[in-house]
Amino acid sequence: MGLTACNATPVPIDPKYNAMIANGSFPSGEAARGKTLFNSRIIGKQAASGCIVCHSAEPGVIIIGPSQVGIATLAEEAFHSPDYKGKATTLEGYLWESMLFPAVYVTPGYPDVMYRDYGKSLTEQDLADLVAYLTTLK
């Protein structure tokens, strides 16, 4: 998938996700399954680019987007940035929001090219598993 396709107009996302982010109530995920999803080049029913296509799980390794190592620190910085337009108040909420609504905050210095339809392509359990894995990358 080319980068221009990654930033295509998103498919409307189930409104339940907005409520989950707003109230901070998320399903439990399995980190081991999330790691497998993260490292898969193609994921979901729409054959979306996997996380590893653009993000590394190694310190300081930049592909297109930032390395996900230290995501807790990145999330904390995002919450306090004047550019942050999201509603998340926790690390888990930030991760859900970043996958479902990536334009609410784009890490400075990186392009706004993240795939917009993970909320349609991935199941709720897939998303929960990815979040469980990403929270281990401290």
- C-alpha end-to-end distance: 29 Å
* Class inferred from helices and paired strands: mainly alpha
Count of folded domains: 1
Poorly predicted sequence stretches spanning 5 or more consecutive residues: 1-11
Description:
The chain has a single domain, classed as Cytochrome c-like domain (Cytochrome Bc1 Complex, Chain D, domain 2, Orthogonal Bundle), CATH 1.10.760.10. The model is unreliable at 1-11 (pLDDT under 50). The chain has 138 residues and is mainly α. 33% of the residues are buried. Helix 2 (16-23) packs antiparallel against helix 5 (91-100) and helix 5 crosses helix 7 (124-134). A two-stranded antiparallel ribbon has the order 1-2. 39% of the residues lie in helices and 3% in strands. It has helices at 3-6, 16-23, 31-38, 71-79, 91-100, 118-121, 124-134, and strands at residues 42-43, 48-49. It is built from seven helices and two strands.
Q: What descriptors fit this protein?
A:
about 140 residues; mainly alpha; Cytochrome Bc1 Complex, Chain D, domain 2; 2 strands; about 5% strand; globular; disordered N terminus
